[in-house]
Amino acid sequence: MTEGTTPSAAAEAGDTLTRLEQEGEIAADYLEGLLDIADLDGDIDMDVEADRAAVSIISDSGGRDLQKLVGRDGEVLEALQELTRLAVHRETGDRSRLMLDIAGFRAKKRAELSELGAKAAAEAKSSGEPVKLKPMTPFERKVVHDAVKSAGLRSESEGEEPQRFVVVLPA
């Protein structure tokens, strides 16, 4: 127990970690079954990142087969993430915020979006004008918001799904 935490706060943090680890285990079992059905090879890696379970399917063979599970611009990956969250919900009764990555697609996308957010922040700083970005998914917007915040500026989302987009505001 760390200094300044109560026994119940430490137990609650441990319960959360255990719950997230359980989510990861359920998701891994579900995804292993899916890989077997699809006759695809992949290793499953589980972690806990930012208060959510994170599960990745990685391939030793470069991941060409796994690209089928990513789809065009991650559309299949998004659907599989939703199905995996539903499988976890069915087992636990709790809504899951689990993140799924396949063949490093999300990790690569996160790096690209962080760079986009940093560039938009630099543009807003130099021009003094708001910078509007193209419509993005909630995951993509979150990454851009975080990058803008790191650059010391503020951003907000505007519009309605699926045309919701980020606006980077000058200081």
Q: For this structure, what is the CATH class of the largest domain?
A: Alpha Beta
CATH topology of the largest domain: GMP Synthetase, Chain A, domain 3
SSE topology string: HEEHHEHEHEE
Question: Which ranges are low-confidence, i.e. pLDDT below 50, for 5 or more consecutive residues?
Answer: 1-10
Tell me the number of strands. 6
**How large, in whole angstroms, is the Cα Rg?**
19 Å
Tell me about the largest β-sheet.
Answer: 3 strands, mixed
**Main β-sheet, spatial strand arrangement:** 1-2-3
Helical residue percent? 40-55%
The CATH architecture of the largest domain can be named as 2-Layer Sandwich
Count of domains: 2
Mean pLDDT equals 90
The end-to-end span amounts to 41 Å
User: Overall 3D geometry?
Assistant: elongated
Number of helical elements: 5
Strand content: 15-25%
Structure classification: alpha+beta
CATH superfamily of the largest domain: K homology (KH) domain
SSE layout:
Elements: H1 7-38, E1 43-49, E2 52-58, H2 67-70, H3 75-92, E3 99-102, H4 105-127, E4 131-135, H5 138-150, E5 154-158, E6 165-169
Parallel strand pairs: 2-3
Antiparallel strand pairs: 1-2, 4-6, 5-6
Protein name: R3H domain-containing nucleic acid-binding protein
Pfam family, one: R3H
InterPro entries: Jag_KH (IPR038008), KH_dom-like_a/b (IPR015946), KhpB (IPR039247), R3H_dom (IPR001374), R3H_dom_sf (IPR036867), R3H_KhpB (IPR034079)
Report on this model:
The chain has 171 residues and is an alpha+beta fold. It folds into 2 domains: 7-103, K homology (KH) domain (GMP Synthetase, Chain A, domain 3, 2-Layer Sandwich); 108-169, R3H-like domain (Ribosomal Protein S8, Chain: A, domain 1). The chain has helices at residues 7-38, 67-70, 75-92, 105-127, 138-150; strands spanning 43-49, 52-58, 99-102, 131-135, 154-158, 165-169. It has a 3-stranded mixed β-sheet with strand order 1-2-3, sandwiched between helices. A hairpin with a 2-residue loop joins strand 1 and strand 2. Residues 1-10 have low confidence and may be disordered.
